[in-house]
Amino acid sequence: MEKNKKTNSEFIIDAMRSGQEMKSPEITKKVAEDSGKNMKIQDIASILAKLSNSEKCDLGFFIEKKKTHKGYTYNLVPEAFNLPVEALYDLTRKTGKNRYTLEQTLADYPELKKYVKTSRLKNRTIKQPSKRGRKPSASSASAVRVTGNSKATPEIQLPEQNLNSLVARLIEEISSQGGLNINVNLTVQFAGLGSNEES
Q1: Between 24-35 and 8-16, two packed helices, what is the crossing angle to 10 degrees?
Q2: How distant, in Å, are the alpha carbons of 151, 164, 165, 178, 191 from that of 131?
Q3: Pseudo-torsion of CA 170, 171, 176, 180, nearest 10°?
Q4: For every one of its 199 residues, what pLDDT tens digit does the chain have, with 9 covering 90 and above?
Q5: How distant, in Å, are the alpha carbons of 13, 143, 157, 198 from that of 44?
Q6: CA distances from 154 to 139, 143, 187, 189, 193 (A)
Q7: 74, 18, 81: which is closest to 48 by C-alpha?
Q8: What angle do CA 185, 187, 191 make, to 5 degrees?
Q9: How would DSSP label each residue in 22-84?
């Protein structure tokens, strides 16, 4: 890749490939030298914050961020040095044709699996059917009872406020799971509508 075509993220990765624990000012200086551009510490610090966050960037799993009395230091985990530099660059991207993905990285370099949360792997590699879509979660089980064919079980009428709260909790849970693809079948029965009996 040509020098002037590299992104700031790629220059930062190059700096971290030195193998040393580096602070933001040191990385900024190295990026400025390598790119030939005048770099601001706050810009590099902002990019570092994103790159080292595994929720926002897959490379974040393989960046060690340590707090010291003078701020944070950053470096790649030792096993990440086995990856080609282009693979490291690709882990900073969310899209792109023929992009080297996290799944491919872990298949080719299984020693890196220990740095990736198991829950993230399950959500990313195989779409497992969600148990949450089949029955209410523990928090909502107290509000709604799933009734079978037994006529002895009384019907529970759910006030609109509780229904709104239940739906809000469901949406919050889906968001916290990273936007899972689930199918929800909801059956609503209204008792007493259209049953005007004449006396």
Answers
A1: 120
A2: 26, 21, 20, 16, 29
A3: 90
A4: 455 588 999 999 999 998 889 999 999 999 999 999 999 999 999 999 999 999 899 999 999 999 988 889 999 999 999 999 999 999 999 887 888 899 999 999 999 999 997 655 555 543 333 343 444 444 444 344 444 444 554 555 555 656 666 666 666 666 555 555 556 677 777 776 555 555 4
A5: 11, 49, 56, 77
A6: 21, 14, 17, 14, 19
A7: 74
A8: 175
A9: EEHHHHHHHHHHHH-S---HHHHHHHHHHHT-TTT-GGGGGEEEEEETTEEEEEE-GGGGGS-
Report which residue type is found at 110: P
Place of tokens 């993905």: 101
